[in-house]
Write a structure and sequence with these properties.
Length: 292
């Protein structure tokens, strides 16, 4: 249930945060992630600060996956999946993504980019100009099963459904330290390790939340649990493109409220026949029935 989920996630995060006041404390979304976000993927090994669990590949040992084949536009890749125009525009649409005082959302540049032919490609798994995977055939990027951002989103969703709206908002927006900059955290289950004052000494870079890391504007939360769930879902659409995590969350939340317009509202705009797609989704055609 939601309380069990919150308890388990908080216990794990508190243990990590309380064991170090390093600038790169494991799982802590702090200022270091602002400049290091693209490095989550552009490495030979998973980024320790962000990694919960990952599948690791090594091209030199014939360990490969199909990520570059699907997303890459350079031979021998097949460019099977390209970012949609609506998906890209959401990063810059201030109604969907309140930028606040920021000029742009840095996650956009780490997610997609135009190649030398002007075709937009998913940029996460082999950034254009990468020195880590210089050749288009080096299809060995690691796959995160869970990363720190997952913990923040899962915890925010659980707390929202427990009626703890302020805490859920803090995780998605400006972070716990924004409320308790000098320690003294009073929220149930949280500790001072999220703030600048930790059990192991002062922390230069405390928790700043998912959006606070990039100095983005605040997504409003209210006492409307469903509306907050949709706010969390919309933020996932900027954090997790092409990681296989957004659509399952859409289905979960749609089933929670028995409202499959939640899926249709977010999926249909990328199609040329949105009305037909909406009808199919609302009639249950939102998932492929696969006989295992």
């Amino acid at each position: 249930d939601y309380q069990t989920a919150a308890n388990l996630i908080l216990a794990a995060m508190n243990e990590k945060f309380g064991s170090s006041n390093s600038d790169a404390t494991t799982w802590l979304r702090n200022e270091r992630m602002n400049g290091g976000y693209s490095g989550i993927w552009d490495r030979t090994t998973p980024l320790p600060q962000e990694t919960v669990s990952a599948i690791i590949y090594d091209y030199s040992k014939n360990q490969t996956n199909d990520l570059l084949r699907h997303f890459g536009s350079e031979y021998p890749n097949e460019y099977l999946l390209a970012p949609s125009s609506i998906g890209m525009s959401r990063f810059f649409d201030t109604e969907f993504n309140p930028l606040g005082g920021s000029i742009s959302d840095r996650r956009a540049g780490a997610t997609f980019r135009a190649d030398n032919s002007g075709n937009y490609v998913i940029h996460k798994y082999r950034p254009i100009g990468s020195s880590t995977r210089q050749h288009a055939y080096q299809d060995d990027v690691h796959i995160y099963i869970y990363r720190a951002a997952d913990l923040y989103f899962m915890l925010a969703e659980a707390l929202n459904n427990l009626g703890r709206y302020t805490e859920a908002s803090a995780l998605i927006n400006q972070g716990v330290n924004n409320y308790f900059p000098n320690g003294g955290v009073t929220w149930k289950g949280f500790t001072d390790a999220w703030s600048s004052v930790t059990p192991t000494g002062s922390r230069k870079y405390p928790d700043k939340g998912i959006r606070g890391v990039f100095n983005l504007g605040v997504r409003p939360f209210s006492e409307d649990t469903k509306k907050n769930d949709l706010t969390i879902l919309d933020e996932m659409m900027l954090e997790f493109p092409c990681e296989g995590k957004i659509y399952p969350s859409m289905i979960r939340i749609a089933k929670r409220y028995n409202d499959f317009n939640i899926i249709a509202d977010r999926v249909c705009p990328k199609y040329n026949n949105p009305d037909e797609i909406r009808i199919k989704i609302l009639n249950g055609g939102y998932f492929i029935n696969w006989e295992l």
